[in-house]
Amino acid sequence: MQSIDPHLIRALDALLTEGSVTAAAHRLHLSPSAMSRTLTRIRHAFNDPILVRAGRGLVSTPRAEQLRPRVRALIEQYNALLRPERLLTEQLSRNFRIRGGEAVPATFAAKLHDRMRASAPNVSLTFVPEGEEQVDDFRDGRIDLDIGAMSDAGPEIKLQTLFRERMIGVVRKGHPLLKGRIDAKRFASFEHISASRRGRAHGPVDAALSAMNIKRNVSVIVPNHLSALFIAAGSDMVALVGLSLAQHAISLGMAIEVFELPVKTKTVAISQAWHPRMDADPAHSWLREQIRALFR
Hints:
The chain is an alpha/beta fold and 296 residues long. It folds into three domains: 6-82, Arc Repressor Mutant, subunit A, CATH 1.10.10; 94-164 and 269-294, Periplasmic binding protein-like II (D-Maltodextrin-Binding Protein, domain 2); 167-266, D-Maltodextrin-Binding Protein, domain 2 (3-Layer(aba) Sandwich). It is 41% helix and 22% strand. The strands form three sheets. Strands 4-3-5-12-6 form a five-stranded mixed β-sheet, covered by helices on one side. The longest helix has 21 residues, at 62-82. The protein starts with 5 loop residues before the first helix and ends with a helix.
């Protein structure tokens, strides 16, 4: 048999269900004349009358009765394709790969794990380090989400801001800097740690200090804020880290104290990024919502 227009299958289902051209037309939002023409096409396609006159009504032919369950099954399959997939998190078994700096898992991995474990015990998380970020990592499924400061992830990537981070100063408890007013000169007089994945010693804080003809002494450069935090906790050096990381460290009992910087710096948007191909995936959407809920 030749291929059949899918619209004819839906029309045939309506005709067999209603047993009436007029009722089937109403069901499919067609005029009775249009439905009659469709019935003619169906009869030609199946080489069978399908519905025949019996008194004032129509009855289905043996061929139509044979087709009825198969046509209904096709309609159900079609509807299932269009129906949003219902996510049963208790049955979800999946490993999500999340990319971000060391502060990302250190700050919220435990809370995310606990939140997800309550409803999805078979879900696991793999955190991978930052590197040479490529769109292909998303497109090929090597990365599910990227979390961090991303000013421009490219037109192909979707971004959702989670919160705005600001930088603060961190020193060990009892540090001499804390004994008195922390102005720009006193702040710059101590040795500093620079946290830079690219090995940079200076940044926005140095630009603000330079406007006041002040220069700080950066004696150690580390690749991430977590390292800077630990070095500051065990020395007289000063570190600049994100507020959320410092607060988390204090909550865990780290012997550090924080202070407001004596210069103004811009806050940074911390976002989660993903590929549009995962937009409609129920499990991925659920993951994004779990993460977003942590930062509300």
